[in-house]
Amino acid sequence: MKTVVFTDLDGTLLDFQNYSYQTAEPSVHQLGQQEIPVVFCSSKTKAEQEYYRSALKNADPFIVENGSAVFIPSGYFSFSVADQLSAQYNVVAEDDFEVVILGETVATVRQGIEQGREEANIHLFGYADLSLKEIQEITHLEEDFAQRAATRNFSETLLKGDKSGETFRRFQDLLYSKGLSCVSGGKFHTVMGQGSDKGKAVDVLTQLFTQEFGEVHTIGLGDSANDLPLLQVVDTGYLVQKPDETWLTTDNENIKKVAGVGPEGWVKVAQSLIAV
Question: Has 8 been annotated as catalytic?
Fold first, then answer.
């Protein structure tokens, strides 16, 4: 049976505070040596994820912007992804990838945010509203990382403004009425098309892995509310601890809680797979 790992990045494989991958790096390489795919499934953009894929020598498919699109390296599977999925999804060729698009364009998302802000009379700001310097101050990212984060195709992250209270809930309801959704990540909220869904994106890739390998066993790792759709559709889902050593509260008893903050918990799960 083929094992496939689907993992969140921030606060899971990457350190919550400094985005370092050093703790998880040896285990990522060991999984690769055992030909266990490690699929990044994150709110991060294509530009951001390609940095980590290069640094970790990862050549597997990846899921961007909270399930807005699935990027599959050309030739990764022995069949055409478009032939398999084009009847259900929009599949396009981009650079050296076959891309399965589930979400809306970033222009549509930002237009919906602007309309929602006006109607709810709320002051919220995303990447498009801020200078690169302001983004750096809020995210504590270096300039090149901040630029990658701002290079968005399918979603917008709300970095600044009041994201609590009744006014924000009204804003979320207005977004929903416009075909958008707003989900909470480890640090910020992300607005995207309602078709964007980490769970749906994982299902799409699981279908392709099953077509390629037959029976597969899927593992999911995350830490935040926006990871629940991912953790609920895999065969075995794990929550790692947050920086305060607590776990996200969930009613799903099938999702396991692993002791270890972020990448420390991630490594425990990875090593259990490597040891098998």
Answer: yes
How many Cβ atoms sit within 10 Å of the Cβ of residue 246? 10
Tokens 């809930």, located at residue: 169
Q: What is the pLDDT of residues 138-168, one digit of tens each?
A: 998 999 999 999 999 999 999 998 888 899 9
List of domains in the chain: 2-67+69-102+197-274 (3.40.50.1000), 106-193 (3.30.980.20)
CB 155 within 8 A of CB 66: yes
Q: What was the pLDDT predicted at 130?
A: 95
Backbone angles phi, psi at 41, to 5 degrees: -140, 95
Residue 113's closest CA among 130, 103, 128? 128
**Pairwise CA distance, residues 250 & 234, whole Å:** 16
CA 101 to chain CA mean position, Å: 14
3-state DSSP assignment of residue 95: coil
Q: Which residues of the chain have pLDDT under 50?
A: none
Catalytic option among 8, 15, 197, 223: 8
Closest CA to 65 of 160, 188, 177, 175: 188
How confident is the model over 64-88, as pLDDT tens digits? 999 999 999 999 999 999 999 999 9
- pTM across the whole model: 0.91
